[in-house]
Amino acid sequence: MMFCDMEGFTGLVEKLGPEEAYGIMDQVYEILIHKVHNYEGTVNEMTGDGIMALFGAPIALEDAPQRAIRSSLGIHREMIRFNDKIKQERKSIPPLKMRIGVHTGPVVVGTLGNDLRVEFKAVGDNAEFCLF
Prior knowledge:
Elements: E1 2-7, H1 9-16, H2 18-38, E2 41-46, E3 50-55, H3 64-89, E4 97-102, E5 108-113, E6 118-123, H4 125-129
Antiparallel strand pairs: 1-3, 1-4, 2-3, 5-6
Helix pairs in contact: 1-2, 2-3
Protein name: Guanylate cyclase domain-containing protein
Pfam families: Guanylate_cyc (PF00211)
Domain Guanylate cyclase: 1-126
């Protein structure tokens, strides 16, 4: 599993205002989601400024840890390109940094909820390690 979190997003919102920060985060989510899917991962949670992604769930993948690492490297490469683009458009925006944690181990994966709201979740100690 992989957890991505944008460093300093709260400060960015304060500096730019919520509408412009939302537009930037929308573009960042586009990068994150595509790079996870490029390596057959599943985005199971979207936070205010990041994502949690699973590799090897719901479909088992023998090389799931390697896919998570490749995805994280792809995200870092794409964020460098994105920063270059943003820098040309708005010089006042500081470079955006993405923190990424990858952890492997057994977890229980499934849907939680009812007909009003359902979420695809990973539960267990190993799911928590990825967040730190």
